[in-house]
# Entry
Amino acid sequence: MRGSGLKRAVLGVATALLLPLGITVIAAPPATAAFTPAAFDFWVDSPVMGPIKTRILRAADGNTNRVVYALDGQRATEILNGWENDTNVAEVLAGWNINVVMPVGGESSFYADWNSPSSFLGAPAGAGSSAANTGSGATEAMGGGPGKSYRYDWESFLTNQLRWALRDRLGFNPYRNGVFGLSMGGSAALTLAAYHPDQFSYAGSFSGYLNISAPGMREAIRMAMVDAGGYNVDSMAPPWGDQWLRMDPFVLAPTLIGNNTRLWIAAGSGLPMQQDLDIPIGAAADRLVRGSPLEALALANTRAFQVRMNTLGARNVVYSFPNAGLHAWTNWQDEAYRMIPDLSANIG
# Structure
């Protein structure tokens, strides 16, 4: 157990960085990889993206009626979904007799149907380095691969090809499912629920960017997407047009209320949890320096969304604003634990 001296030191580093930087987009550090032996690969073809892997963990009681989709964050890999890679949330959900659907891939995609393959200055995919998952957008921006050699088509995949394949091959109920995600995935969960209310009766956002049309947000997302895989936000959606507004949960608030979608909306304070401090001091400082600014931005977006929903008289939302929580898996895992009973009561 680390003492108060470490906590003061780490908080001091974060404060010193946050004040001059204002809104800063830095990625949270990866955690140790994990693998759930009971989960299995489920491959489905997308007519645009080709074969897409999803990891499935069946409900403990074998039912096929209760289904939730767990969406990854901006640094989603092509190997495992972060909910499996960095948490035990899938196993907990299965223990609650909920089938877990974990799409794999979609780095920086926002799980949207993009306007075009990601490119810069019209350069074709693969014109530069083909390096992937280097952690540096500078080495990946001109490369090929997911969302660059082809156009991202994630919303269509999740709500069409994957949905019906789960029904036809596994017997999963395609209606009144849940969907939740962190950061990029939290924003996407609300968008999916807004446009596909028959499929999703429940949506959860943890540290999501729920007011993407606010001043400065597009450029913040631009920097984040360049850093996370070297993607161009202009390829996703032109600035301030209908396609961009279609992705903004703030704009979609009346639809989410009209659909009576049950929502779980959460963001941390940007202060560390004890778990973030009970690690070597260098790792704790790094986690805080990276995770605190992003969570502060997510919290501001989430509070703005809350004000919007309250102004419209929403009665279909649970809000969770814990006193501690970084833009990190420690926060999102604990938030999922808090959400699961409410999710269980509102799907299937």
Notes: The radius of gyration is 19 Å.
